[in-house]
């Protein structure tokens, strides 16, 4: 399912217009992005938690030349599923 499919499904099940659903979905995703950018955690009880994690600096290898390269430390987004979501999937 992609974003367009999600918007269509929510619009059909809720009776809202596709434009309204898209506005809400974009706002929701924007707020999660803003919170993660600030280093905050977004916790949706029963669904899951969005957070950032530090990825340590490491040495990698260029697959074409075999040359070693240094990869800098970075922050990466992460999602941890909640219990209700885990139960629904299983």
TrEMBL record:
Domain of life: Bacteria
Keywords attached to this entry: DNA condensation, DNA-binding
Entry keyword Cell division: no
InterPro entries: Hist_DNA-bd, Histone-like_DNA-bd_CS, IHF-like_DNA-bd_dom_sf
PROSITE patterns assigned to the protein according to its UniProt record, in alphabetical order: HISTONE_LIKE (PS00045)
Pfam families, sorted: Bac_DNA_binding
GO terms for MF: DNA binding
Family: Belongs to the bacterial histone-like protein family.
Identification of the protein by name: HU family DNA-binding protein
């Amino acid at each position: 399912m992609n974003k367009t499919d999600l918007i269509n499904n929510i619009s059909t099940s809720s009776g809202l217009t596709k434009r309204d659903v898209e506005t809400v979905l974009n706002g929701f995703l924007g707020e999660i992005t803003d919170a993660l950018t600030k280093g905050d955690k977004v916790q949706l009880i029963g669904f899951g938690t969005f957070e950032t994690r530090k990825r340590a600096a490491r040495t990698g290898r260029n697959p074409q030349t075999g040359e070693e390269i240094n990869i800098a430390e970075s922050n990466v987004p992460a999602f941890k599923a909640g219990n209700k979501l885990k139960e629904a999937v299983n």
